[in-house]
Design a protein that fits this description.
This protein is mainly β. Helices cover about 10% and strands about 40% of the residues. The chain has a domain at about 10-105 and about 115-145 and about 165-185. About 40% of the residues are buried.
Length: about 210
Amino acid sequence: MFLLSGKFLGHSQGFINLDFESANLAAIPAGQGGGFVSATNAIPGWTAFIGANQTTQILQNNATTGLPSISIFGPDSLATGIIQGNYSVILTAGIVDGSVSISQTGLVPVSADTLLFEAAPNYAGAGQLSVLMNGQNVPYFALGTGPNYTVYGGDISAFSGLQETLKFSDSQIGSNFSYVELDNIQFSSLPVPEPGALTALGGLLLACRRRKK
């Protein structure tokens, strides 16, 4: 019954551009890769980091295979597929100094219990996507699947109503690079369900996304 009373709160209360659709970028012709663009224009609201250092540029419609990088993939890209809308972000952990991350600070909605996001872990080697709130690790679980992504959710109820920093980080833990595609981050008033209810919550998120479209 809790599924029927839940609300998705993803684009309110201070956090912005959680679906990466606010990119302000020139189009790249179909079949061509892009170069570096301003992170401010590519992922407004987010701050990008290579290791512990902030970077002011990220790649558009392109990615690295050995060095750490952050990329935004949009229309006519050579990527395997955008998760939703026009843009998705890819975090690539490199072989050396492999950690990359994006973060932003905002007010977590008062009624938020769960952080939801969609990701496509396409690892070339062993990697690890971490989600942190206020520097604390947020354990997350697979809730459902789409055509080219998995829906994940984690309990962030301890941060409800607080001004906090949300961070997504991909770290290399193997001998090769890894990358993960990320999109459609949302706050929800739904609690993280018991294991038997995971499929139902994932289905509700997918249905909500179809209505949005």
